[in-house]
């Protein structure tokens, strides 16, 4: 699936819909109901997620706290492509996680360049620190 950039019809990220305190299953059920003639299988295929995994999230038989952020963003883009208004914030809140910052190519390239300049021991330390920061952000 190709993730598209925002277009004029997309919701403004600064104007997220009010929080509904939904878990991922409830959010997906509500959004699928708004997507005419679309199914879980359609969502799974277009978002690059296996249907059994998506179905397990919808049936609450599989945890959602460790879903790859890119899979959450892919589902947002699929719904937007279908004309359903949603935001990344809704998805991240539904799985109980803070919304990660944007991943800009320029910022990622700068980080990689700095990482490559570090001695190996410092690279390992940086990875440990980053993993610890991610773990703390999932808890808090």
User: Using DSSP, what is the number of strands?
Assistant: 0
Q: What fraction, in percent, of the residue positions are helical?
A: 55-70%
Total number of helical segments? 7
Distance between the termini: 32 Å
Task: Return the string of H and E elements.
Answer: HHHHHHH
Indicate the mean pLDDT: 83
Largest sheet: none
Report the C-alpha radius of gyration, rounded.
17 Å
By secondary-structure content and strand pairing, the structural class works out as mainly alpha
Low-confidence segments, ≥5 residues, pLDDT <50?
1-14
What would you call the shape? elongated
Percent in strands: under 5%
How would you describe the overall organization of this protein?
This protein is mainly alpha-helical and 140 residues long. The protein contains 7 helices and no strands. The chain has helices at 24-34, 40-47, 51-58, 69-81, 88-94, 105-117, 120-139. The protein is elongated.
Q: Topology of this structure?
A:
Layout: H1 24-34, H2 40-47, H3 51-58, H4 69-81, H5 88-94, H6 105-117, H7 120-139
């Amino acid at each position: 699936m190709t993730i598209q950039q925002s277009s004029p019809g997309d919701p403004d990220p600064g104007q997220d819909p009010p929080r509904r305190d939904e878990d991922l299953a409830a959010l997906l059920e509500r959004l699928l109901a708004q997507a005419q003639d679309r199914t879980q299988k359609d969502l799974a295929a277009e978002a690059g997620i296996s249907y059994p995994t998506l179905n397990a999230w919808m049936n609450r038989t599989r945890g959602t706290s460790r879903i790859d952020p890119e899979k959450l963003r892919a589902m947002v883009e699929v719904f937007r492509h279908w004309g359903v208004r949603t935001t990344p914030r809704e998805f991240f809140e539904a799985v109980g996680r803070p919304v990660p910052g944007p991943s800009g190519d320029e910022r990622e390239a700068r980080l990689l360049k700095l990482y490559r300049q570090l001695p190996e021991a410092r690279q390992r330390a940086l990875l440990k620190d980053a993993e610890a920061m991610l773990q703390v952000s999932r808890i808090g």
